[in-house]
Specification:
The structure is a homodimer of 185-residue chains. Chain A is mainly alpha-helical and 185 residues long. Chain A is built from 9 helices and no strands. Chain A binds a DNA duplex (30 and 30 nucleotides) through α2 and α3.
DNA sequence: TCACGACGGAACGGTTGCGTAGCGACGCAC
DNA sequence: GTGCGTCGCTACGCAACCGTTCCGTCGTGA
């Protein structure tokens, strides 16, 4: 019986290590060190760094994403941005996500895991939002879900992760407003 | 006198190595190997991996960015997107840029270099586009340049670098149209 | 022609991480 | 109380790079 508290300590350490040094530099030794655990304890649970990360990403995927249903396109978009901003402002997530995205181009398994954990979930939520908006007559029938996602999340991701700029009060409101206008165009 | 052809071979190798393995995994030995050059030749020119990369990024910065002046906001935005899409579809750039952006959070010097090389240039171009549009009455006086950049480049970056999705025909046209609508909202 | 300097290559000692093995200690089930 | 499995820890041989040093070679300018 593997001790659950040790397993949890390792999981936590992996996230911290991933944020601190990135996937490429992350080592099993470093994880064990940070977790206050022997290397053996890690190897007894996962066979490699890749397997370890894939397992954690999949665990995140299982959490799911709340689907907004506020009754208006603006409301739904605003809610979606709120969730996204909350996630991307988290210091660990905002570091780990782009790091793994880059690494994904070198490891197809990571790409698959990220797709399943993040992108698919987002796509599902966006599809529901678009479907509802079409039903209400707020959007044309032929609205493309992927394009909608680009327009809604893209600007926020750019600001928070690429430029790493501030998020002034009212920014999300304006962004939601702009996104709705963009979707209608 | 350092031989220019050797210097150039090293520069090329760094870009390739950066794209292939990323900054974290990149080694001086690997660069020299790829360039078909002795380690000595590299160390004779740059004192470290960081100095080497900073020098290359600065060189890119010196190239500058063309400022569109098509006479309409839509035309300017469309042109800007064309340039950005061209850059981000380049296999090396689309790998190196996000990699260095992540690394920038760990090395302030890289953050500064990237800012000088890419973000400042973009900001300048966007400022000119917004200024012209305001002068033509296409945009309100108080339009924020950073927000405009988020709305224009964000969706494209998201699609090309994050989702790594295709760029169907007419996508940029639609995106430019949406961005203009978003800016006016 | 000759001296100088950059060249590629090999080797140096040192560090770090790999994945594995063996250690005694501890805790839990029977 | 006895055994079994996991625990943290140390050590192993191996590999990759680090940054430096010393070769012998080659091209160029004086």
């Amino acid at each position: 019986m593997l001790r659950e508290d040790v397993t949890e300590a390792i999981r936590t350490a992996v996230f911290e290590e991933l944020a601190a040094v990135g996937y490429a530099r992350m080592s099993i030794e470093g994880i064990a060190r940070r977790a206050g655990v022997g290397k053996t304890a890690v190897y007894r649970r996962w066979k490699s760094k890749l397997a370890l990360v894939l397992d954690l990403v999949s665990a995140v995927a299982a959490e799911g994403l709340p689907a907004p249903a506020t009754g208006s396109l603006y409301g739904d978009v605003r809610a979606l941005l709120e969730v996204a901003a909350h996630a991307l402002r988290h210091p660990v997530a905002s570091q780990v996500v782009p790091d793994l995205l880059v690494e994904a181009t070198r490891h197809p398994e990571i790409a698959d895991a990220i797709r399943a954990a993040l992108l698919d979930g987002q796509h599902g939520v966006a599809a529901a939002v678009v479907r509802d908006a079409v039903a209400r007559g707020e959007l044309p029938e032929e609205t493309d879900v992927d394009r909608a996602l680009d327009l809604i999340v893209g600007p926020l991701y750019w600001r928070l992760v690429v430029v790493r700029g501030a998020l002034p009060a009212g920014y999300l409101d304006g962004l939601a407003q702009s996104a709705v206008a963009a979707l209608r165009a």
